[in-house]
Amino acid sequence: MHGKFISDQKRNFMGRHYECMSDCADMSSYMSRCHSCRVESGCFMVYDRPNYMGNQYFFRRGEYADCMSMMGWRDWIRSCRMIPMYRGSYRMRIYERENFGGQMYEMMDDCDSIMDRYRMSDCMSCHVMDGHWLMYEHPHYRGRMMYMRPGEYRSFREMGYGGMRFMSMRRIMDSWY
């Protein structure tokens, strides 16, 4: 499945727009700002800095007439990444400390609070074996988020998330597309 993300310079889908159907590392060369957007198909992660850096926000199919206010950003979308559709099993190991240290728990479904479920107060590294996941700063899928695709993530601090704790995790399901 191909995705389609359309960003507009002004609120309510006004002004110049840019259509993106795959990853885009730097949208500033196409438009100076983005205040509204539409996802016609697929799911996308957007970032407030080029090269998929900075704050992240997840968009699924729909219209977002004032996405800057919705996300609480003062700036604009600088890069976006299409999330591929996935229909297999989900599996992720979360670790209390960096470099896969401390307590480890294996997850195969959503977790609205690692504190409630595992009595784990912090998650500082993870290994995503299967599926695509969103990790959230607060319990119950609130706060800033980070997109995790299959791979090893040895240190969230070294990835630029030093002051952030991840307290809930959710699978990106095919029904979201």
TrEMBL record:
Beta/gamma crystallin 'Greek key' domain: residues covered: 42-84, 131-173
Molecular function GO labels: structural constituent of eye lens
Domain of life: Eukaryota
Entry-linked Gene3D superfamilies: Crystallins
Listed PROSITE patterns: CRYSTALLIN_BETA_GAMMA
SUPFAM superfamilies: gamma-Crystallin-like (SSF49695)
Similarity annotation: Belongs to the beta/gamma-crystallin family.
GO biological process, one term: visual perception
Any one Pfam family match given in the protein's UniProt record, by short name: Crystall
Primary role: Crystallins are the dominant structural components of the vertebrate eye lens.
Keyword Transmembrane in record: no
TM helices/strands, residue ranges: none
Keyword Secreted applies: no
Protein name according to UniProt: Beta/gamma crystallin 'Greek key' domain-containing protein
Signal sequence coordinates: none
Alphabetically ordered keywords of this record: Eye lens protein, Repeat
